[in-house]
Each structure stands twice: as C-alpha cells, then as structure tokens.
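Convert to structure. Protein one:
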Amino acid sequence: MGDPRRLKKKYKKPAHPFQKERIIEELEFLGRYGLRNKREFWKSRTMLGNWRGIARHSRTLSKERAGEVQQTLITKLKRLGILSPEAEFEDVLHLTVEDVLKRRLQSLVYEKGLASTIYQARQYIVHGHIQVGNKKINAPSYIVKKDEEDLISFVSSSPFTTN
C-alpha cells in the first residue's frame, strides 16, 4: 500500500530533465541557499506555483468569491513575510522562487549571523541547536513567519548559546 505518512509528492519535476540553462540555474540556487538537493528547490518552486495558480484562478471567479480568495492569499503571504505589508494582489504574480527561499529557516539563521556559512546554518538546525520562539525546529526548510523572525535563537542547552 505505501507509507501512510507520505500520501503524495510535494513537488513537481521539470518537464524536460536535460536543459543546460535550467540545470545551471538550479545549481546556482542550491549553492546560494545551501539546499541539500534539487528536490528542495523543486518543492519551493511548486509551492510558489500553487500560490500563483490560486491567484490566476481567482480571476475567473465571481467578484465576491474572488475578493475573498485574493484577500485570504494576500493575508497568508504577508503573514509568512513573502509579500511586503503594502503589497497588492498583482504582486503575487511577480513573486520568484528566491522570495520563498529567503524565508527558509536556514537562510534566516545565516542572515542573522548565528552561523558563519549557509551550510553551517543547516548543520546547526539539523543537529538541534536552533529554536524559533520556545520550539526547537530541526527542519531547515521551515518557512519562518514574519512575527517569528525575531524569535530565532540558539536553544538554551546548546553549547553555542552566549550567556
């Protein structure tokens, strides 16, 4: 039957697996954001594609329903910090994969200066040295919400904690 915890894939592979320009672009993102493999990049790209698909589909709905769907999507993306507070609905269609990758816990730990490299940030997270609020998170791909951004720190039991 299959593993009940993994009901479906969270990503879509590229339609054409051997396109040199796309492969080079993916490898640049892997290096810049410290991704483990291309699957992590594809997950971010698929997540963005789903949001953009919702935005495009909402244009075909009735006025009331479209406004509801659009407002829900904009609120969610602003809460995640992917859209700026003054962003409009059209800005959803102008988002890039880089906007999603910048909100990953791994990227924010590196940007905050808790790690000297993006790869060290990943290692700290996986080894259980990073917490968001009071919750230890060991997934580098965790999308940090805007209000949680200031709560990223080392776990109190970590040897890297500065007291």
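Protein two, convert as well:
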Amino acid sequence: MEWTDDSINKLRALWAEGHSTAEIGRRMGISKNAVVGKAHRLTLEARPSPIRRDGDKTPRRRQVRRVQGSTLPTLAAALTPMPADPPAPLRAPQPVERPAPVLRAVPAARPAGRITPCCWPIGEPGTRSFRFCDEASVGGKPYCEQHSALAYVRVRDRREDAA
C-alpha cells in the first residue's frame, strides 16, 4: 500500500474517533497490521488494552509464593521405612486365554553371520494378534526377502515412459 496524504488524514481521523485497528483497516480496504504499522510510524496516541480485569484499570502483578529453605526431604526422612500396607485379600486365579502359537517351517539355510529378524509388522497394533515377521532379514535391509520385494520398488526411468 502506498500511503498518500489523503489516506494518512483518513487514518488519523478514524484513529481519533476511537475505532479499532481492524475496523480502520476494513474501512480503508487495508490490513489491520498495515494500520498498526503506520500508526506506530506516525507516533499516534497508544490505545488502551481491550483486556479488562474486574474493571480495574491498573494491571495486577501475580503474587509468587516463595518457599524458604530446601524443598527436598531430609535424608533421615527418606531413609525411614514406610508403614507396610495390609495384605490384599486373596482371590482365586482367573484363567488367561492365550492364542495358540503360530508354527512355521524354518528355512533350511540361513545366511552366515549376524542374523536379524525381519521387522515387517503383521496385524493391527494394540491387538493380541499383532506381531513382526520373524524371518531372517537379507542384504543389510530390515526386511526378509518377501517383504523387501514389497517395500523396495525399483524407480522407473523417465525414458521408459517416453515414446
């Protein structure tokens, strides 16, 4: 925006009438921040804060409660044993349902050296059936051969698409 003498006079008049910066901006077709910036550069009278607390015009300072001395417990208090809680009443043990383990055939040959399991997630996280693939990972990748084929897809050359 280019500030002309007319626009500056209009800004001063609207400012003197007590309009908000947003309202002045709407009436002049400019942003609120443009109004604030120009008012600051023109050193117009500062506006009072629109935030009022209980009708009091003077801002209050929050009282900070100061504590004297250390807030940590003493060593003697930390070393005193806590009173023992009475034992909880015994309940009959409840049977726990566990899913049957999934058995897989172990591959005949695994690569020599450090064997790390495949970390491909199987199932929905947070459910009992969630687990990771336990095949051996290949070629320094985090996945087994089957999951590597899914995870790593060869990028096509753009020249293959041409023609």
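The CA atoms of residues 23 and 32 lie 8 Å apart. The chain has a mean pLDDT of 78.
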